[in-house]
Amino acid sequence: MRNKILFSLSIIGILIGLLSAYIYGTERKPLPAAFNPASNPFAKGIYANGITESYQSNGENINIYPEVAGVVVKIPVAEGQKVHKGDPLLVMDDSVQRATAEQQKSQAEAALALLEELKAEPRKENLEIAVAQVAFAAASLKTSEDQLDKLRKSYELNPKSVSKNDLDNAENAVKTARANLEVARKQYELTKAGAWIYDIRNQENQYKALIKASTASAALLDKYVIKAPADGVVLSINAAAGSYISPQGTYDTYTQGADPAIVMGWPQDFIGVRCYIDEILVHRLPPVSRMHAQMFIRGANISIPLQYVRMQPYVSPKIELSNERTERVDVRVLPVIFRFERPKNVSIYPGQLVDVYIGEK
Predict the structure, then answer these.
(1) What are the DSSP E strand ranges found in the chain?
(2) Domains and CATH numbers, the chain
(3) Which of 1, 14, 324, 331 has the fewest beta carbons under 10 Å from its own?
(4) What is the DSSP letter of 298?
């Protein structure tokens, strides 16, 4: 009985082993691919990494940096919004600069008022006082001369009637009155002449300096509002109300680098594609007249023909497309720019990585 049980268990084990071997030995069918990988459509085509951007005649996207530093208080636009040239995009706190501009404007106005006062001299009231002072000095001189004349006549009639001391004092009084009259006349001429030309020129220069400072402050005040440099679309806003921005850009929490405050693109029907050709493949680029390119969208079985636009004839170090400025590889690349018409049934945005094959038909 025991032998039968052992024999039965052995047979069962053999069957389980054969079944396991069959199951694990059977080749499983692979899962279908989510999309077909990009294949080279050209016989001798070369591959290039590409990134989409707003299409324009030169440069890349419109990266906007503030010219002054400050705290953001208002952002009147939204990402994806179309804007026109001169529309406000971002407003910063300008309270300190506004007070400075108003102060310098008041100083310029005060300098202008003083300049006009100098040019308006002599003042009528001052001139009347100078005339009265001349008349008073002349009357004083006449009184002194009459007193001296009386003393002299008395002295001529009777020398003992007038002392020598009184006669000398009268003569000195006439001389003093005559000098006072001369001073009054010169003071009248000085008042009548008005302000000195050098004082006017000095005040004019001070006014010009203050008006220039006021104009500069007002111009700097306008920099606290970032405006659209051209008609376009707001692609990215890298600041929020309450955040601090500077001419170096804004701090990105995720990349820990500096980004432009606002990125804009051109509102056109075309999208640009910037391709980076490896330096070892540059010599294989076909002539521009026979150059053709095909773009493949990653994650989709979609390809789009590209139109050649221009080439940046400068081979530069390649920077990995990870937004890290310090992340470099020992490769130099040649930028070639293509474009394509924005498709209606496919969503493509600036900054998207694509695969590009460049060849010759």
Answers:
(1) 46-54, 62-64, 70-74, 82-83, 88-92, 225-227, 232-237, 244-245, 250-251, 258-259, 262-265, 270-278, 291-297, 303-311, 316-319, 328-341, 353-360
(2) 122-194 (1.10.287)
(3) 1
(4) T
Q: Are 174 and 148 in contact (CB under 8 A)?
A: yes
What tens digit of pLDDT does each residue of 86-138 get? 999 999 999 999 999 999 999 999 999 999 999 988 888 888 999 999 999 99
- pTM given for the model: 0.64
Best CA proximity match to 193, nearest among 116, 100, 122, 141: 122
Length of the chain: 361
CB-based contact 51:352 (threshold 8 Å):
yes
Residue with tokens 């680029």: 285
Token pair for 313:
């004839």
Q: How far is the C-alpha of 221 from the C-alpha of 70, rounded, in Å?
A: 12
The CA–CA distances, whole Å, from 341 to 83, 181, 205, 250, 271 equal 21, 96, 59, 33, 6
